[in-house]
Amino acid sequence: MKVTVTVDDEHRPSIHHVAEQLGLRGMVVDRVLPGLGMITGSVTAALLAGLGTIDGVAAVDEDLTYRLPSPGDAVQ
Amino acid sequence: MIEPDSSGDRPSGSAPETTGRFIVVFAETEADPPAFLRSAAGLSNVADSRDFGHGPVDPATAGDADATVFASLGVAVVTADPQQAGALRMSSDQSNIESISPELVHHALSQGTLSPPSALFQDTEHFTWGLQATGAATSPRTGKGIRLAVLDTGFDSSHSDFAGRQVTVESFIPGEDPQDGHGHGTHCIGTSCGPRSSREGPGYGVASEADIYAGKVLSNSGSGSDGGIIAGIEWALVNGCAVISMSLGADIAQVHPPYTAIGRRVLDQGSLIIAAAGNNADRRQNDFGFVGAPANSPFILAVGALDEQLDLAYFSARTLPVRGGQVDIAGPGYRVHSSWLMPDRYNTISGTSMATPHVAGIAALWAEATGYRGRELWSVLVQESSRLQAPSVDVGSGLAMAPQE
After folding, report:
1. Superfamily of segment(s) B129-395
2. Taking CA atoms, what residue in B is nearest to A31?
3. Its domain of life (chain A) (predicted)?
4. pLDDT tens across A2-40, in order?
5. Residue B322: phi, psi to the nearest 5?
């Protein structure tokens, strides 16, 4: 599943280290975003719970999907 | 202090209605107001509220008196002839009295008779109704020097109305270039940053000289997910965009936690995310909907949609009753004319998606006019918005208004 990891404020300067730790626990990291302090990627359901225990991880949230109406619809 | 004309009723105009009596406010140092009234003004019949114990002052008893003293307040209501009034005025110079004022007649406030707004905007040959209603049509500000990001379905770079404009494009959708294959993104960019005058049809763009950052976070089929959207926000932030417009949302009745941290961190770094409240209401069926994610996050400005009469659009979502779930402001979001994919060039559609880029463009105008960023920019948008008759749960602080200087 696709996930977004929120890095806590204290660990934002060391976000790349947090990303390495996530990788070691089985997360496939797509993007490390230092400006926002977020890391996005994917992980299996079995390994999801393990991510939250990593130092510097404030939260792990499953991605939401967003869908626009078709271009012909009057209300967008 | 003595009021200049304390001799009774005022004849006309908006002057207050008075009784002919006076309200005397004693200095706090005056220990015995009844005695003072007897000695200074020669008032013989002085009623003292203390004589009524803990009960109310009996109007029948007090009505016969020349003066009624309310000891706890240090105030007296006095009936005085001109000579007595003159004596009291003299005494006020001796620091026994703070003020003597005519007693005013008060009325119960009548039921409000607020008339409905007579607003009825329509597109003209010069401007869309939205540019007129928000004052963007007459604003001397154009967003010049301000970077504005629209995170949506990309941008049609071949659109003739944007020839010569500074447009930076990027795609966060795997396998798709930044070219808009849907139309929604090009429409939102048109409203926020398009031209104020057009050779064909009305001018439709609010911040017509802003630098455009078009991030594609929704695919040509109109779908996307957090990973791409968050990457787009980071891109806008790193590129110094003061305003990030997001006409997207999921109908989720909870705050999605990543956007709480993101909204706050974006504000901390001098940018502002403006997002659509959502179209999940159908007020024709008494369904009021709710503000979805990410607009329901506490640090993201949520935008509702208005029609040409500045009434709420039937689809515009109502405040979600959680922290951050409120509609913060409203913008034109009904039958909005703007740019569309070539060769169609233009399209007229409705939605909180259309209201959002109006507010984003106006935010860019305020950013230019004031130099404000982040929380200060949020504040000035809300402060300067035009209040509406509609409930705040639907329109927040009202219609976003453009600076006029």
Report:
1. Peptidase S8/S53 domain (3.40.50.200)
2. B231
3. Bacteria
4. 999 999 999 999 999 999 999 999 999 999 999 999 999
5. -135, 165
Instruction: Name the interface residues of B facing A (CB cutoff 8 Å).
Output: 153, 182-184, 187, 218, 222-227, 229-231, 233-234, 237-238, 247-250, 252, 256-258, 261-262, 265-266, 269, 279, 293, 315, 349-351, 353-354
* Ranges of each domain in chain A: 2-48+58-62
Cα distance between residue B21 and residue B91, in whole Å: 17
Mean predicted confidence (pLDDT) in B178-200 = 97
In chain B, residues with a C-beta closer than 8 Å to the C-beta of A58 are: 261
Report whether pLDDT(B11) > 70.
no
What is the tens place of the pLDDT at every residue in A42-68?
999 999 999 999 999 999 999 999 999
- Range B111-119 average pLDDT: 54
| Alpha-carbon span B134 to B362, nearest angstrom | 8
Q: Residue B229: what are its φ and ψ, rounded to 5°?
A: -65, -45
d(C-alpha A42, C-alpha A1), whole Å: 5
Which residues of B have a catalytic role annotated? 152, 184, 353
